Amino acid sequence: MNTPFLDTKIPEGPLEKKWSNYKRNAKLVSPNNRKKLEIIVVGTGLSGASAAASLAEMGYQVKSFCFQDTPRRAHSVAAQGGVNAAKNYKNDGDSVYRMFYDTLKGGDFRSREANTYRLAECSASLIDQAIAQGVPFAREYGGYLRNRSFGGVQVSRTFYARGQTGQQLLLGAYQSLMRQVKAEKVKLYARHEMLDLVLIDNKAKGIIARNLDTGEIERHGAHAVVLATGGFGKIYYLSTLAMGCNASAIWRAHKKGAFMANPSWTQIHPTSLPQSGPYQSKLTLMSESLRNDGRIWVPKDKNETRKPNDIPEEERDYYLERKYPSFGNLAPRDIASRAAKEQIDAGKGVGALKNAVYLDFSRALKEYGKDIIKERYGNLFDMYRKITGINAYDEPMKISPAAHFSMGGLWVDYELMTSINGLFAIGEANFSDHGANRLGANSLLQACVDGYFILPYTLANYLAGEIKVPKTNIQDKEFDIAEENCKKQLESFLTTKGEKTAEEFHKELGKELYDKCGLSRSKQGLEQAIENIQKLRKEFKTNLMVPGDAAEVNSELEKAGRVADYMEVAELMCIDALQREESCGAHFRQEYQTEDGEAKRDDEHFSYSAAWEWTANPSEPKLNKEPLIFEFVKPTIRSYK
Amino acid sequence: MKIYLKIWRQKDNHSKGCFKDYTVDDVNKDMSFLEMLDTLNLKLVKQGERPVEFDHDCREGICGQCGVMINGIAHGPLKNTTTCQLHMRSFKDGDTIYVEPFKAAAFPIVRDLKINRSALDRIITSGGFVAVDTGQAPEANSIPITYQEAESAFDSAACIGCGACVASCKNSSAALFTGAKITHLELLPQGQKETHVRVTEMVEQMEKEGFGHCSNTEACQVECPENISVLNIARMNYEYNKSKLLVKK
């Protein structure tokens, strides 16, 4: 029942056998042939670094690209709380099936069963792999691994390394990558940004990249291209993402024929620090793990003026505990964020701008003592103090929702291949595993599983058919055309000579999206946003200001390229949100809610992934639907009450 | 707040650089140091001037990409803080602030405050890893590591690779950076098998890159955003000497 373009390639068999069936039947490339095959991996976060290292270990020739000054800085580094795995070390009833079900339910039944099951299935191996690399996960005194709980689940399956799990996992992957650099199986291109994807005979055969230190435009050919370029939540300008995170690689691949799936599904993280002023460049995340011991509340009275510690217990509304008694403060992110917005919109927000809620540790401090709390969250409390100047051991933190994770991304099949032959997308850059809402600590997991355990098999299956194909000729006319287009675009940014910087445009665009395509969406708002974005995009073309030139270090020019893409992505996000006339997970349409304000899904009409096809007009993308078929699980109303 | 800045401007590694004076009028105490530089850059671009290039990315103190000398101190006056986590409340109205790149022979200047720290990558490449291929790992709990061992290893593993230790050292030594990685892996059973080879190769690479020797001033620990201890350097030296005695070439 799939259209030919949306062949999901889900293997036959029962759920728990699909991945082993796939591996059993997948084609292999023999060791002596692997060295003849070149692979480009763009991005060096957890998915990119793990894929590049694993592929190089197998014997392929890998070229690895990142825009940061070293691969170790990719934004996976910032993930704090942990990584999930169904090890059931706690003997608390966890299993691969339960983890699969939690993830599927967490995503509001909007992801593929087979992909989600595979994620849970491979989770245990990841912990083994990371331990072998020397990742210093938290331990019990006897020497065994320690776990904690995260949002949306009722077991403890989260492994963590203080509040720096992403950093430590990434260093493990980075070190494996550098080991392959030493073995001369990986060639590293740091401070390089991908500007375009090159297709020859409808297959991904290379990229155009810009050396950000010299401005030089380079051509790189390969037998396959892997995009591991992360999420694009930075499109909202204020977000928890790094300043350089962007959609450009996937968007330019999209314009070459790769479908974008569910682009509007953005996770708004509930526990970020609130905005303090218009100069602000980013919103810092406070790990969700804090919700294990922190209690979220607002004053019952919206005219409350007392300091938080002076407000008596009975005048506080612990609204998550009240509304979702069985999950309480550990309700999933979309629900916790929406509940916070509800309080803030009702005028009960706290802080100078009344844009935050309290996250209170007083009970945990009383119960466990300061030492234990410090050991669990010390670096987060330190970070909070550095940013706000406030000591959270003495008074509650102020937190607020912020754009965080892109559940949407490039459409991929079971093999993680996009709708372009030979182009793969892994990690946050693809759309595959999280449905309409990602559970905490599943992001590091997905990035690692895609890179270490899935791509090495599925890419081999593709490359087995490419063994006889000669090395890509970078003098091919397709490279000429792509390079010419990139140069023209850079030139156009520099010659516009208008009055607004790329960042000013970005801030305007971000505000529009936060207001109309953020936590809450409506038909009217989205239509208005589309109109405004079109206007803004038009203005961008005539009123952009970029100093300097293209043949040198030029951060303003880099930003211009990213914002130009955001201008188009933003419209697609709104179009995507508009067509989905239901609420699910992070996608909350005001028109579709239950009587008590929860998301109201419409399985009859919207149980599909929207895979958008580029048509040369950003306002008229073509919608392809991948129906979500539930063979093993019956979608239910997602309740955390 | 009004802040006077003297910022190092340099076109590339081959050109001569100099301090240039700037004033930022509308500084708010809750701004981060980098947001203050953003404010300056917006002004410069609007005036048709080239903005100040500086390294930054995550802006939450973990990626290690930012880092400048602020009044001669790596990452500025606040202890155990990266430049991005330093806020203007650490300064007063009317202050003059000197801003320079991290300077070391092994860190060529790319432009203004932006530097090239790939020498640190090459030190890791020379041996800063556990040689395990994907798929080889045994069951995680089959390698028990005590709480204390894991915590100590973490203290060393916390290094963010910013290079403040190099910039703070009068000899531009990368001993703290290198020692931290050697110690992290040496403290864990997984990493111990390769210690001798690792320490030899990493120390030799460090010298090849043109980093200076450690003369125990301990300035590196003082300025390290992660408070990495100089005991990591002692450990490196100990392991290095041991490997010289034990390793057969």
TrEMBL record, chain A:
Keyword Metal-binding: no
Reaction(s) catalysed (UniProt annotation): a quinone + succinate = fumarate + a quinol
Key words of the record: Cell membrane, Electron transport, FAD, Flavoprotein, Membrane, Oxidoreductase, Transport
Any one Gene Ontology cellular component term annotated for this protein: plasma membrane
Origin species: Zunongwangia pacifica
GO molecular function list: electron transfer activity; flavin adenine dinucleotide binding; succinate dehydrogenase (quinone) activity
Family stated for the protein in its record: Belongs to the FAD-dependent oxidoreductase 2 family. FRD/SDH subfamily.
Pfam families: FAD_binding_2, Succ_DH_flav_C
Lineage: Bacteria, Pseudomonadati, Bacteroidota, Flavobacteriia, Flavobacteriales
Protein name from the UniProt record: succinate dehydrogenase
Automatic annotation (TrEMBL), chain B:
Superkingdom, taxonomy of origin: Bacteria
Record-annotated 4Fe-4S ferredoxin-type domain positions: 150-179
Reported cofactor(s): [2Fe-2S] cluster; [3Fe-4S] cluster
Family annotation (InterPro entries): 2Fe-2S_ferredoxin-like_sf (IPR036010), 2Fe2S_fd_BS (IPR006058), 4Fe4S_Fe-S-bd (IPR017896), Beta-grasp_dom_sf (IPR012675), Helical_ferredxn (IPR009051), SDH/FRD_Iron-Sulfur (IPR050573), Succ_DH/fum_Rdtase_N (IPR025192)
GO biological process: aerobic respiration; respiratory electron transport chain
Any Pfam family the entry gives: Fer2_3
GO terms assigned for molecular function: 2 iron, 2 sulfur cluster binding; electron transfer activity
Family matches, as Gene3D superfamilies: 3.10.20.30, Alpha-helical ferredoxin
Family to which the UniProt record says this protein belongs: Belongs to the succinate dehydrogenase/fumarate reductase iron-sulfur protein family.
Protein name: Succinate dehydrogenase/fumarate reductase iron-sulfur subunit
Biological source species: Zunongwangia pacifica
Top-level taxonomy: Bacteria, Pseudomonadati, Bacteroidota, Flavobacteriia, Flavobacteriales
